[in-house]
Design goal:
The structure holds two protein chains of two kinds. Chain A is of the alpha+beta class. Chain A is 39% helix and 17% strand. The mean pLDDT of chain B is 92. The chains are: A alpha+beta, B alpha+beta.
Chain lengths: 496, 529
């Protein structure tokens, strides 16, 4: 029996990074949770009597940037509405949102198989609408037994964009790809930190297998919790269908996620009437779109797909490597700088391999994150040029690369000079030293010469000093032996 | 100089005008450069001030002190006038009698009253510790300290709080009539000569009706002309700041001091709009000397209107005609007929929304834990049930109905549409341009300059003893003459006529406040002959 088809839609709240809040002058700490509670609130954020909202135009700019990037139809006139409900952390007794005339509607994101090999087909995700709205305060519960909760209004009135997609997703891979794309997009646009953990980004899931009613899942603080909740909920709904679930008996349900399973929160039929009404004092947002959109377009960053296309077509980089570059601004910049320092087109094409596989690979082993101060593009490209020209062997080249990163001073020396110092100029005659007897001779000589170090390793347990011995061996053999072989032999001979 | 604090306290004992009286009011500024120097005033208790509570005459806010001053209060103090105290009102400005509030009824000085309502006074002192914003230098929070032994970084405030007799309602004389509302305290303060002028708020007639009932001037400017920052919202799309005085020039001067844009109030008219109005006003000076065209809406021929009012209305128009000031034209504004239900749908809807912030969590009254049964209802529900008075609760329920998913289209949206029609119809009647509409329709180049209609349908305010037993819907009828201008946001001056509680409204097109003030001066000239 085939699995029933799955339908998933997302409702995403994106907290905007702006200087001040949506309707007041108080600073917007976004979801910086380390700030003292109730220290970034204004009179309006606390809904004091006699205060009025004042729209922050930066929020509109950010919303339009997002709307353009999501191919939405932007409204020339939009307006704010009140959504009423009582909650301790909702100071006005209503939320100011955009219910009747949102700022943008009817957008889409194209996720192409070309860029996402894990997709079985090209996928279009339709965006119903984007609405600007206020965030609420945060209730802080101290313990389950206490009937007291404190409220922090720092989050109150922070600008949010609520985005609702149609149920265009049918598996978790699509959700994963979409979320990665969306997070990258809002970070590129510089409108949100994109952090799910802090609540700067909040994702609710609408999900049903065909034949089951729609279920909403809330409180999903990480991408993996979103994906796991979907997996769980799919199984749960299928089981329910198999055990004689009746469409009529259930209303639309909201469920939570506890890390292992989804659990019942409430039914829609018990939901309150929000009594939506147009806000009576906030003026309508009127936009001169013909004038505004070209201007905003000109300040938008290049789209993610265009960036990938550019790297793939003009730099001949694989999709996988292109994605690594566009997800790391510093690495991309380093790559482009290095590219311009190399003339030989054949060597240019080797650059990405040296950067992504050799450099990043060894950095990952040493648990260092790439940053632009590790090595200069000039030093890096000079090394690669010498290696590719056959003046330094690949293995030696890797060692020199590590040496350059650890000894920044040597980056200013000409590479060949440095290689000579280490005796690493490639020797094209084949040294027949690959049998253990002659290797052992070399090693033994080194061990005898460095008896103090051998003592420190054996008696004081300074295992790391073994690297020095390996280096000596490498020097002796002009670097034409894998350091790993020396390491293993030394360990055998020293009995450690 | 008006009455001193002792006299004010004595007179207040009888009429219960103030919710709080300042113990040490700042003396009025004698500087010749202070536009309102030497003037004293009282301000309705729904404008925030930092020296005493801002209660809205509600238990919900009975001891709430605001950490900031309303724009109106700041501007008046800067202009050199001196605030004497804050005046009683209908709770949250909902009502037209000023007898429903938490601090008891305010009585009408025009009618006999034998016994005092106030038993005694209590002076209350408190201190505030202010934190100043690093961004804009404004006060951002203000902790109220009851312990003020160390006063180095504290500011001290004190006010005098009246204590009502327990049997205050029984002490009201039989001949007493309602003072009108909801700005009844502000009207009474002027009528009793306790202050030179007073500030009220007018949502559906709350300045004009009590002005009429106390025989003084009551001016409701164009919607958005005076900043509402610090005025507690009742129905924001209708709320305006109003001015009351016995002296027309004082009304004018006060209006000029308050007629400013304010970035804190999103509905306050912008500087560019004000500039356009000012330029048009200069151009219209060429009409000086010509007769002013007066429109009389046929829809004001209301069945319920007293014959005597109709008679005085005619006599007023005849006097103005005889002195060659005006010519009279009948006009029609058909939607006036629907304005009462339209108004009560919109204002209750807005009120129910605006008042939903009062939950006892952040400020104001909060029910004691021992008085709650959270198994039956959440604490905030008990707080709201006991903190709001009957009329406020009634209007919240009415408003929630209008906004509910079953009432929204049939009530709220229909009322909004009628309001739009009403504004269009007024635009067709007036010669001047609505200041927020760019072009004037050709149709109305021959429109009228002003409209003159009565402020009330009855020649006398209702007796207090009768009014207490009136059902709410009948009491809403008192607003029938003032509501159309509120819905359309039109500048309207209620002028006293003859003696007693009678007034007529001079109504101008949206934005034509100075035209209304100038016309009121001309009418005043004719009537005082």
């Amino acid at each position: 029996m085939t699995k029933p088809q799955l339908k998933i839609g997302l409702e995403i709240h994106t907290q905007l990074q702006t200087i001040s809040k949506l309707f007041s002058n108080s600073l917007n700490p976004t979801s910086n949770l380390s700030i003292i509670p109730n220290s970034t609130t204004s009179f309006f954020d606390n809904s004091l009597p006699g205060t009025q909202p004042k729209l922050n135009n930066q929020c509109i700019l950010n919303a339009i940037k997002l709307a353009i990037s999501l191919n939405c139809k932007i409204s020339s006139i939009s307006s704010f509405d009140r959504k009423h409900y009582f909650y301790g952390d909702q100071p006005l007794g209503y939320q100011i949102t955009q219910h009747f005339n949102p700022i943008a509607k009817n957008g889409f994101i194209k996720l192409l198989k070309k860029y996402n090999p894990k997709l079985s087909n090209d996928l279009i995700i339709n965006i119903q609408q984007l609405q600007l709205e206020q965030d609420t305060g945060r209730s802080i519960y101290h313990s389950i037994n206490s009937n007291i909760s404190n409220i922090d209004f720092n989050r109150s009135n922070i600008p949010l964009i609520e985005m609702v997609t149609l149920p265009n997703f049918s598996n978790i891979e699509e959700i994963r790809i979409f979320l990665q794309y969306y997070i990258k997009l809002i970070q590129d646009l510089n409108i949100c930190t994109g952090d799910l953990e802090t609540g700067a980004l909040r994702v609710d899931v609408n999900i049903n297998v065909i034949g089951h009613k729609r279920v909403e899942i809330k409180n999903l603080p990480t991408i993996s919790s979103i994906l796991n909740a979907i997996k769980f909920e799919e199984k749960r709904q299928i089981n329910e269908l198999n055990s004689g679930y009746s469409l009529l008996s259930n209303s639309i349900e909201t469920r939570g996620w506890n890390g292992k399973s989804t659990y019942h929160l409430r039914n829609k039929e018990s939901n309150i009437d929000y009594r939506y009404v147009p806000d009576m004092e906030l003026p309508k947002i009127k936009l001169d779109l013909n004038n505004l959109i070209p201007k905003i377009n000109s300040i938008l960053p290049v789209s993610i797909n265009d960036k990938i296309d550019n790297l793939m077509n003009n730099y001949k980089i694989s999709l996988r490597d292109s994605k690594i570059l566009i997800n790391n601004e510093k690495l991309l910049k380093f790559y482009l700088n290095s590219w311009s320092l190399i003339n030989d087109i054949k060597i240019k094409e080797k650059l990405i391999n040296w950067l992504v596989h050799e450099l990043l690979g060894s950095l990952t082993k040493s648990e260092i994150e790439f940053n632009e101060n590790l090595i200069s593009p000039k030093s890096f490209t000079n090394l690669i040029i010498e290696i590719e020209n056959g003046n330094i062997t690949k293995n030696n080249g890797k060692l020199i690369l590590l040496h350059l990163i650890n000894n920044k001073i040597d980056q200013s020396k000409p590479i060949l000079e440095l290689a000579k110092e280490f005796g690493m100029i490639a020797n094209n005659s084949i040294n027949d030293i690959n049998n253990n007897d002659s290797l052992d001779n070399i090693i033994n000589n080194i061990l005898i010469k460095n008896d103090k170090i051998v003592k420190e390793i054996k008696e004081n347990g300074k295992i790391k000093k073994i690297n020095f011995l390996i280096g000596q061996c490498m020097r002796q053999t002009n670097g034409n032996v894998q350091p790993k072989i020396f390491e293993d032999r030394i360990k055998v001979l020293l009995n450690i | 100089m008006k009455a001193n604090i002792k006299q004010i306290q004595n007179i207040n004992k009888r009429y219960n005008v103030f919710t709080s009286i300042r113990s040490n009011p700042t003396p009025p500024d004698n500087s010749p450069f202070a536009p309102l120097g030497n003037l004293t005033y009282a301000i309705k208790d729904n404008f925030t001030t930092r020296d005493e509570p801002t209660s809205c005459s509600s238990k919900m806010l009975s001891s709430y002190v605001s950490p900031f001053d309303s724009t109106v209060s700041s501007l008046l103090n800067q202009s050199g006038s001196s605030c004497i105290g804050k005046t009683n009102m209908d709770e949250f400005a909902m009502g037209n009698s000023t007898i429903s509030g938490f601090f008891g009824p305010t009585l009408n000085p025009l009618y006999p009253q034998e016994r005092d309502l106030i038993e005694s006074y209590e002076e209350i002192t408190f201190a505030t510790k202010d934190s100043i914003s690093e961004n804009d230098g404004e006060i951002i929070s203000s902790d109220i300290m009851n312990d003020y032994t160390n006063t180095s970084d504290l500011s001290l405030h004190s006010y005098i709080k009246p204590k009502l007799y327990n049997d205050a309602f029984d002490r009201i004389s039989n001949e007493q009539r309602i003072v009108g509302g909801s700005s009844g305290g502000s009207a009474a303060a002027v009528a009793l000569d306790l202050v030179d002028f007073s500030i009220g708020s007018d949502t559906g007639g709350s300045v004009r009706l009590p002005a009429c009932y106390t025989n003084i001037y009551g001016f409701k400017p164009t919607y958005g002309r005076i900043s509402r920052w610090g005025l507690l919202a009742y129905a924001q799309s209708l709320d305006t700041v109003g001015i009351m005085s016995k002296d027309l020039d004082t009304v004018w001067k006060v209006f000029m001091s308050l007629d400013l844009s304010d970035s804190k109030d999103p509905s306050c008219l912008s500087d560019s709009t004000r500039e356009k109005i000012a330029i048009e006003r200069i151009h219209s000076k060429k009409n000086v000397g010509k007769k002013i065209k007066i429109g009389i809406p046929v829809e004001f021929q209301i069945e319920e209107m007293d014959e005597s009012i109709k008679k005085y209305w005619k006599s007023l128009l005849n006097k103005l005609k005889e002195s060659k000031l005006i010519e009279v034209y009948p006009v029609s504004v058909p939607s006036i007929k629907y304005s009462l239900p339209t108004y009560y749908t919109l204002c209750t809807a807005e009120a129910s929304s605006n008042l939903s912030r009062y939950d006892g969590i952040r400020y104001g009254y909060r029910v004691l834990e021992s008085e709650c049964n959270v198994d039956i209802e959440p604490e905030f529900v008990t707080t709201r049930n006991t903190g709001f008075g009957e009329e406020v609760r009634r209007r919240i329920i009415l408003g929630n109905y209008a906004l509910s998913s079953y009432g929204f289209d049939s009530h709220f949206m229909k009322a909004t549409a009628v309001r739009g029609m009403l504004i269009d119809e007024f635009n067709d009647v007036f010669r001047d341009r609505h200041c927020l509409i760019e072009t004037k329709q050709l149709k109305s180049t021959n429109g009228v300059d002003m409209i003159i209609v009565p402020t009330t349908t009855t020649s006398q305010p209702p007796l207090v003893k009768d009014f207490k037993n009136t059902d709410p819907v009948t009491s809403y009828m008192n607003d029938i003459c003032t509501i159309p201008m509120s819905l359309a946001g039109l500048p309207t001056m209620s002028i006293p006529y003859c003696e007693g509680a009678m007034g007529f409204q001079l109504v101008g097109q949206h934005g034509q406040d100075y035209k209304v003030l100038e016309f009121a001066r001309l009418v005043d000239g004719v009537l005082s002959k």
